[in-house]
Amino acid sequence: xxxxxxxxxxxxxxxxxxxxxxxxxxxxxxxxxxxxxxxxxxxxxxxxxxxxxxxxxxxxxxxxxxxxxxxxxxxxxxxxxxxxxxxxxxxxxxxxxxxxxxxxxxxxxxxxxxxxxxxxxxxxxxxxxxxxxxxxxxxxxxxxxxxxxxxxxxxxxxxxxxxxxxxxxxxxxxxxxxxxxxxxxxxxxxxxxxxxxxxxxxxxxxxxxxxxxxxxxxxxxxxxxxxxxxxxxxxxxxxxxxxxxxxxxxxxx
Amino acid sequence: xxxxxxxxxxxxxxxxxxxxxxxxxxxxxxxxxxxxxxxxxxxxxxxxxxxxxxxxxxxxxxxxxxxxxxxxxxxxxxxxxxxxxxxxxxxxxxxxxxxxxxxxxxxxxxxxxxxxxxxxxxxxxxxxxxxxxxxxxxxxxxxxxxxxxxxxxxxxxxxxxxxxxxxxxxxxxxxxxxxxxxxxxxxxxxxxxxxxxxxxxxxxxxxxxxxxxxxxxxxxxxxxxxxxxxxxxxxxxxxxxxxxxxxxxxxxxxxxxxxxxxxxxxxxxxxxxxxxxxxxxxxxxxxxxxxxxxxxxxxxxxxxxxxxxxxxxxxxxxxxxxxxxxxxxxxxxxxxxxxxxxxxxxxxxxxxxxxxxxxxxxxxxxxxxxxxxxxxxxxxxxxxxxxxxxxxxxxxxxxxxxxxxxxxxxxxxxxxxxxxxxxxxxxxxxxxxxxxxxxxxxxxxxxxxxxxxxxxxxxxxxxxxxxxxxxxxxxxxxxxxxxxxxxxxxxxxxxxxxxxxxxxxxxxxxxxxxxxxxxxxxxxxxxxxxxxxxxxxxxxxxxxxxxxxxxxxxxxxxxxxxxxxxxxxxxxxxxxxxxxxxxxxxxxxxxxxxxxxxxxxxxxxxxxxxxxxxxxxxxxxxxxxxxxxxxxxxxxxxxxxxxxxxxxxxxxxxxxxxxxxxxxxxxxxxxxxxxxxxxxxxxxxxxxxxxxxxxxxxxxxxxxxxxxxxxxxxxxxxxxxxxxxxxxxxxxxxxxxxxxxxxxxxxxxxxxxxxxxxxxxxxxxxxxxxxxxxxxxxxxxxxxxxxxx
Lengths: 253, 789
Hints:
The structure holds two protein chains of two kinds. Chain A is of the alpha+beta class. Chain A has helices at 26-34, 42-46, 113-117, 159-171, 184-188, 205-210, 236-247, and strands at 3-4, 12-17, 54-61, 68-75, 93-95, 101-103, 124-125, 152-153, 194-198, 215-216, 228-231, 233-234. The two termini of chain B are 60 Å apart. Among the domains of chain B are: 49-91, no CATH class; 176-364, 3-Layer(aba) Sandwich (Dimethylsulfoxide Reductase, domain 2); 586-719, Barwin-like endoglucanases (Beta Barrel); 749-788, no CATH class.
């Protein structure tokens, strides 16, 4: 039976509190397990062809002994004005009614224009057919399509979990509760740095986090208007640095 | 009017183009929506899934898990929201359970060989069990397991006892010094809970507690709360390597190896001297110490010894003493020295100075286990005990060794020559899931069930400050292989096999029965605040299985006044192994560290564990060596150079990874690689740093001083590309605040962005900087735009 898709009045967003991220990689593997991402073998690492829908980047700041390591998880930013969408000649990537940047695997013809257009480098091309030893196929997630060679893939905001959650709430004739739907990365994240929810719900956690003074987005100058936003890292040493800049007649803040 | 053919074609073209443009303007918006308005049946997954609660006893602490099972296959592991340790969260170490369950190289059936020199050959369980029965019918027997807190450890211990043999545990990165220090300072038999979530200041040493130390998932959950509390917590971490925990700290103290205790006492001096502790607290801290002994640990003196500036020590002390509640703890490399007990005792004693013991945001002592007969605490036997044990094996005093959950051949340093010891024992029987280095020396290899297929119990250590019993249940049965006629692994439970061999001697016939006895005991214990209540034991057991365990928030640990003995005695100075006779090169101190993903190598068979990037280096699939950039320069080493790392116990090779967070004089190498056997993804991959650790031991506990090895570093002259996630350029932000925006407390992101932009503009309008980085044209453009503004 073909059913009408219920798009509802949701707009999904992810809030990342950088101050809580420890770089533990729990989100990276949880995503890989959930979404049947092929094994990133040594060969793929060496060719820079590993696939990771969410990655944790580590940046250095300062010099020893006052050096700092900063972590930031980066996934598809699900931009409102996504540069990847208009360049797709076959509409394999498009913006859905719920704020998600969606990839339709069976439309994709592998031009890779979208990956070239994405400033966040979060789209991945399947250069090879994904292969698992037969016994490891036992743990593949039946909810998620295995992508074949020659097509693009990327973070889906765990759309299958979203669909399941929406359907479940509808079947029980009740509104969806905030936090009821969790993406795989958020579910794993031990420090709760990752938060997913409906930004159209003013009471949702992500809506509240968006009001935080530490709110920022990646590459705002590009006007992509991402649905993933970040809360800045807090560092007491910065205060000292800025005070120093002011005393030297710098701009400060 | 007559049209030429050329004019006709031109007009037609224009008309067509116009029509297309006109029509394009008029396409209704709905026709441009590319989203499918329907959900197709093939998009919906048929079949019912079930979710089972269990615990992971193979990780660091026991994490409560919920496993999604569909059509008899485990599909996903997630944290159990109810379970008090990890509270719904999980880690890389939990996820890999699926791959170890369905590993293509899982032992399909028993393997045996007649003599140590022979070949392992397949055998039947009937034959294997008869060999097992004959081999274990002796008192000249030793049972070896990893540290186990639940009934599996109890069964192993009891089995050895009823046969008159010995039971001994092994942990390559043993926590004996930690347990010894906790006992000395808090008089506690089990590790306490550190209430990180409610602390305002956390002071830690050596322990990579967010990654691999003791209970990392719980610590991380607490860290998340610590950061988001109304008063954002402040974290100080002292370690000779920039670990994941050091990276998360607000203040990192890059202490020279072996000086952690000195820095702790210097901080104590700051707290006392600046009047940040009450008279009672100072008395509690100093009462057992000889008068004036703390004078040897003044910040300025310790700064010279430790490499941490006196200013930083004072700042850390002020914060620790004044911004309470404060908590101090340590372990890992801080205790892995010949004076490890002194160092950790000094660290834990700091808690008395800030009134942290038994208070919110401090140290909470855990209660005795709620299950009779279980100790609730487990650590590996000391290295000194192991030297004695292996001497017995070598002397021919032991006929049978049963090994489970440890890879002795991989985990023991070269100094004890464990292979020789194993070959001296006539019957070496090893249980496991995937071939390892110890099995390669075994006379009988028995496939063991994964923890997702077996029954068991576990007492989390540390608990959350109250009594918890984790219950492990089989979430899947044996898995049929692709040929549909055999099993992926014809495995048996280790506990079940020992209970079968023991007959009635232990008082139970199976692990399942022991679980039932446990739940019956908990039911009889009662308690209105327990997590499960039911009218009868049967329903109670079902409730416990559904929740993944039992806990009682009122069954808390003791709250008592206590005093500790003088801990500044015996060895208080570090000692390192020598490097004479090791050829050319520079001498560095080896700081081995437990891998975030592989742990000590126990998870290395899983490709997920191999491929997840290391948090600091982003490396995977190979052994790398973290070396200071200046040290690297001194021997003309750059990233990708293969290094010889030589100690008096042996040598390994590793790919150099110079990075800006490594202190001078140390070299960090991950533990967990270098398996000779270990399945297709682990065997022959990387090098085993555990092999070259010297045999130095903590004076008081006999624990292996695994951070007390000096090594000589040489270039091999060969190069390899380091498999890593980051690029080839060192990852410093090209402009401030991008992509990680940093704000000062109280500063808004907008303000920080404005300040960063101003700083960035200054950078490009500064002539000297512009010349240095060769960006004149950009700088000029910015200057022009500024002048226009």
